[in-house]
Specification:
Elements (H helix, E strand, L loop, with lengths): L1 H31 L3 H19 L5 E6 L9 E5 L6 H8 L8 E3 L9 H7 L3 E3 L4 H18 L3 E3 L16 H10 L4 E8 L1 H4 L12 E6 L11 H24 L1
Parallel strand pairs: 1-7, 2-5, 2-6, 3-4
Antiparallel strand pairs: 6-7
Helix pairs in contact: 1-2, 1-4, 2-3, 5-6
Length: 251
């Protein structure tokens, strides 16, 4: 009975999801002709729409956001990673920060709108089998985000968690990013529950999933600060937040 209910609400979501990606593929291509900012606004609108469409599956998004986090401001957001849904969560909730992403090369080829945004929207496409190329591109992304005062998201785990457990952080990419953007404050960010949405790879989406997001206080950068220490600080905050949320679920 539960699976039938899941399918009843998943089908309209998938139809809306596919239609949104198809329509915004056209809009994004037109917007890009007028410059990067129209493209960014278009992608932000799409990601907000995708978040709204998630409600069709009964999903509930609970957001904890530091009052110190400002719009139209660049940040380095260090986050755990649980699913592809994490991307529209960032883009939809941080609309005016125009967050950029670091993605593996495969995602730049086959997803309508998503691939176009990754390749033409000022993001970083990396080859995981070529660490030198990856670090070079991440460095360039950090420099560009600092220059334009836009946010950049990095997932130091390097891959999605299939069960929500926090994995070890791989420091090289994040350290490179922070060194390339020394003026951008670091925001420890925690996401939990998004992995459950894709537990069945969308077929179906479990009805009524709760997804929690927390944007912590921005940590201002100082000359000569230690990026590795900041990364460990962010990981500790993410770990503590996940533990707090899971304690709430048990009660």
């Amino acid at each position: 009975m539960k699976q039938l209910r899941d399918w009843v609400f998943t089908v309209p979501f998938l139809l809306a999801f596919g239609l949104t990606l198809g329509i915004f593929e056209i809009i994004a291509r037109v917007a890009r002709l007028f410059g990067m900012r129209p493209m960014e606004v278009t992608m932000g609108a799409m990601q907000r729409m995708l978040l709204w469409e998630l409600r069709l599956t009964g999903a509930k998004l609970i957001v904890e956001k530091s009052e110190k986090l400002q719009g139209s401001t660049g940040y380095v957001l260090i986050s755990n990673h649980q699913s592809l849904i994490d991307v529209p969560i960032f883009g939809g909730l941080l609309f005016s920060n125009y967050p950029k992403y670091i993605a593996k090369a495969e995602l730049g080829r086959w997803l309508p709108t998503v691939s176009f945004n990754l390749t033409h929207g000022g993001n970083a496409i990396i080859d995981r089998d070529d660490p030198r190329q990856a670090l070079r591109i991440i460095k360039a992304l950090g420099e560009e985000c600092q220059r334009r005062n836009t946010a950049v998201v990095i997932f130091p785990e390097g891959t999605r968690s299939r069960d929500g457990a926090l994995s070890d952080f791989k420091p090289s990419g994040t350290v490179t990013l922070m060194k390339a953007a020394p003026d951008l404050a670091v925001v420890p960010t925690t996401i939990d529950g998004s992995w459950e949405l894709l537990a069945n790879k969308l077929f179906p989406i479990p009805f009524g999933t709760t997804v929690r997001v927390r944007f912590g206080d921005p940590v201002a950068r100082t000359e000569g600060d230690d990026p590795r220490a900041l990364l460990e600080q962010a990981r500790a905050e993410i770990d503590a937040t996940l533990a707090r949320w899971r304690e709430l679920r048990r009660h």
